[in-house]
Write a structure and sequence with these properties.
200 residues, mainly beta, Substrate Binding Domain Of DNAk, Chain A, domain 1, 5-stranded mixed β-sheet, 5-stranded antiparallel β-sheet, 2 helices, 10 strands
Length: 200
Amino acid sequence: MPVMPTRVIESHVGIDYRHFQVGSRGLHEPPRFPFDEMPSILTVVDNAVAVHSAVHVHHAAAVRMESWEIPPTTGGPDGADRDERQVVFDDDADEIVVYAQAPMATAPETGMLHLNAPGEYRVRAYRWGSNDAIAAYAADPDRQPDGIERFLIQFWRIGDITDHTTRHPGRGAPAEHQWDIAIRDWAQRQGFGPNPPAIG
């Protein structure tokens, strides 16, 4: 009998600036991801994960998130892009709860996914359908290619937080205008044009 995830949530999540974010209740301010280099799919800071799209326009992606007790035995389809990282969730609660939302959203866009106790986690991501979304937008630029790009995000706990745990606190807390400039610079490098929309 195949081993299955312990919990699953599925939803559509908005993509802004080519990513959405998965956060936990351990976040006390918006996560400040280091976007100096574009990774394959995942960027991590403590208590949050940025999940990167391969589509350059705003759209809603289909997202499935899974909680596992062991390394997942199933994954995305053949040919899907894949990435895996380590992240720390250190909520004060007995159980970690995560959700996904667009970076500009004011509330979660998925249900709450219950993981396990606070600690070190592995997160694995699969991405597919990106080329189909790009083709759909090229064929009809007046329509957002919603629901075509798809993501599978899997979490499993690997241990307690110790003095040897690698932490990813993210950037320091710059002044708001400095953070705005950092986002604009990153957006321009991704091809959003010389004047992306204002942040905030």
